[in-house]
Design brief:
Length: 279
């Protein structure tokens, strides 16, 4: 699976922690960093998938471990960073590919019909987890020569997304500000903090929620490039932001969205009249 250009080893011997790394964009990010020579720590609550991915990487000669970490819990996050440093002696890069919603926070939930349980749960999963991860990551990096952090936000952070609950968008908007705050506060320590904002990405989670026809309709209504984005394409953006090629980029929120951002916050108009005019 490590089929990237073997001449490119931008992270040779660097230690990379990927939270939410067991599947989807997180797993693609793990594989992308591994292909660049990194030593990998996969953190997640999906133990079977995380252990399997770490074992697969080790079979390919990659130094990799899995750590169980519920990143809404401070003790788990502190242990996650401690295990990383104990195992590999450093933490150079953290990719916080976290997010999701409470089980009762579903599509169509908005201001008046979101329960407190759903709101608090989604905020914990999609915002608190990122804050706690950054808290312990920067505590190590501040005293050990700096590093790079890349968070995973969402296009739902900047516009009302009909396929996402309100509280998910609010949480990801918080991730954007958290990212900028981190960049301002910790640049003096040699720490860069950036984020990506994915649009519709072909992950197993997305395909468990929508069929291919629905996904195609979502993409056509939102993007200049009318196809779902691959998880590996999100991962490539994360790797670049963490690399020395982006050494003077910090506090940046990068849309990886197939051109949705170019149309403005609500995306392109796809009325039948406009579709007819373009056909």
């Amino acid at each position: 699976m490590l089929n990237k250009n073997t001449n490119s080893k931008r992270f040779l011997d660097k230690v990379v922690l990927v939270t939410g790394g067991a599947q989807g964009i997180g797993a693609a990010t793990v594989e992308a960093f591994a292909s660049e020579g990194a030593r990998i720590v996969i953190a997640d609550i999906q133990d079977e998938k995380g252990e399997a991915l770490a074992a697969q990487l080790r079979e390919q000669g990659v130094q990799a471990i899995y750590v169980h970490a519920d990143c809404t819990r401070s003790a788990d996050v502190e242990n996650m960073v401690q295990r990383t440093v104990q195992e590999f002696g450093a933490l150079h890069v953290a990719a916080n590919v976290l997010g999701g919603g409470h089980r009762s926070d579903v599509m169509g939930n908005t201001v008046h019909n979101t329960s407190e349980e759903a709101f608090d749960g989604t905020m914990a999963i999609s915002l608190r987890s990122c804050w706690l991860s950054m808290k312990y990551e920067v505590l190590h990096m501040m005293n050990n020569g700096g590093g790079a952090i890349v968070n995973c936000s969402s296009m739902a952070a900047v516009s009302v997304e009909p396929h996402a609950p309100m509280s998910y968008g609010l949480a990801k908007a918080g991730v954007n500000l958290l990212t900028r705050h981190g960049a301002v506060e910790y640049g003096q320590y040699g720490i860069r903090v950036n984020a990506i904002m994915p649009n519709t990405t072909a992950t197993p989670l997305l395909r468990s929620m929508f069929d291919e026809q629905q996904i195609s309709a979502m993409v056509e209504a939102q993007q200049a490039i009318p196809r779902a984005i691959e998880a590996s394409e999100q991962a490539d953006a994360i790797v670049w932001l963490a690399s020395e090629q982006a050494a003077m980029i910090t506090g940046h929120i990068l849309p990886v969205d197939g051109g949705r951002n170019a149309y403005g916050s609500l995306g392109p108009s796809r009325s039948s009249a406009i579709k007819t005019a373009h056909d």
